[in-house]
Structures are given as structure tokens and as C-alpha cells.
Amino acid sequence: MSDRLARARTSGVLAVLRAPSPELALETAEAIIRGGITGIEVTYSTPDAPSVIRELIARHGDAAYIGAGTVTTADQARAAADAGAEFLVSPGTLPDLTRAMLDTDRVVMTGAMTPTEVMGALALGVDVVKIFPASLGGPSYLGALRGPFPDAPLMPTGGVKPDNLADWFAAGSVAVGAGGDLANSASIAAHDWDDITQRAARFAAALSAVRG
């Protein structure tokens, strides 16, 4: 495993954060971190995502692993890197975009679903292949990909929950991405930070159990 992935492996769970405003994104991230999940992927679905990234890094430094998600343009990749993002995530793998992401020298995670797409992402040199939407195949599908790609760093996103976290890691995940079951949109809309903290605590407990 590359040392570039040490922080991702240590974090274990990356919270996929989508919020309707920068302020709510910050509140949500703080609630998640309070619950024990320190990997935060601030998606570009969130207005002014770079400002959120910059503020979270200012608040938490190395105590949290902060990156950008839903990166779909080279300008977004550069803006996130300039804000201090440690990793960049794209839902798919477009060659030109992926090269622009790699040019930032941040950890790069790009999306794939089929073996052909996984091969394409690995050929471009990404650090992690994001299997998305992982809910379509579940942990058994991730495990099947381990046949032809035994050493590929795979990160499932979609369908990851505390009660199946162990199955995803047993199937060979380097880390997992957790969206609605963690940064829940209804809870964000209701400003129910206690609920989000409790969700994060359940993920953190499940991760701790996986690691023994």
C-alpha cells in the first residue's frame, strides 16, 4: 500500500457531505467529527465547497482528513487543492479530468463500477478506485472484483451502513464512503445535529469493532 493512503486507511470512513449552504455544511461536519468520524468529503454539491474545506482545515488541522467530492471539472480540482483539500473524489473517471486531479498531487479517488472502468482508472494512476454506486452489487460484488484486481485500492460508496461495515472491509475495502446514512439530508434540513452525531458514533463503533 502506498503511504499516500495512510490517512485514508486510518480514517476508514469518509463522510460524503452534501449540504444546501456552507454554514450547514460546517455544522454537519462538526456533528460528524463529534461522533468520531474524522474523514470528511465536502462535495461540490455544497455551495462554495472550497471555503468549507478551508475552514474545516483551519479548525481541525491534522485531526481530521478533509477532501473534496463530486469533482467534475479541472477548475474544481485546482480550487479544492488551493483550499488545502488532502484528497479529491470524482464520481466517474474521465481521462482529462483525472489527469488534472493528479496534477494537484493530492490523493485522487475516481469512480468506477465495471472491471473495464476499474482498469481504466488504474491505468491513469489514481490512488483509489471508488466503486460507485456500490449498493448495486453489495460487498459480494466488491469481493468479486478482488479476483482480477487483488491489490487495487477499492473504496465502496453507496449502501454503506454501520451494520454492513464489517462485510465491506472483509471484502477488501481500503476505506468506505458513507452518504445518506451518515450525513443525512433530513437531519441537516432539521438542524438535528444530535442525530447526525449519533449516526457518526454508530459508524465509529462499527469501525472500531472491525479493527478489533
Which short descriptors sum up this protein?
212 residues; alpha/beta; 4-stranded parallel β-sheet; 10 helices; 8 strands
Which stretches are poorly predicted, pLDDT < 50 over at least 5 residues? Answer: none
What structural class do the secondary elements suggest? alpha/beta
| Rounded Rg | 16 Å
State the helix count: 10
Overall pLDDT confidence: 97
Shape: globular
What is the beta-strand fraction? 15-25%
Order of helices and strands: HEHEHEHEHEHEHEHEHH
The residue fraction in helices comes out at 40-55%
How many angstroms does the end-to-end distance come to?
21 Å
Describe this structure in words.
With 212 residues, the protein is an alpha/beta fold. The chain contains ten helices and eight strands. The radius of gyration is 16 Å and the shape is globular. The mean pLDDT is 97.
In short:
This protein is α/β, with parallel strands linked by helices and 212 residues long. It has helices at residues 6-11, 22-34, 49-60, 74-82, 95-103, 115-124, 138-145, 165-170, 185-189, 193-211; strands at residues 13-17, 39-43, 65-69, 87-90, 107-112, 128-131, 154-156, 176-178. Helix 2 packs parallel to helix 3 and helix 2 crosses helix 10 (193-211).
Write the layout of secondary structure elements.
Elements: H1 6-11, E1 13-17, H2 22-34, E2 39-43, H3 49-60, E3 65-69, H4 74-82, E4 87-90, H5 95-103, E5 107-112, H6 115-124, E6 128-131, H7 138-145, E7 154-156, H8 165-170, E8 176-178, H9 185-189, H10 193-211
Helix pairs in contact: 2-3, 2-10
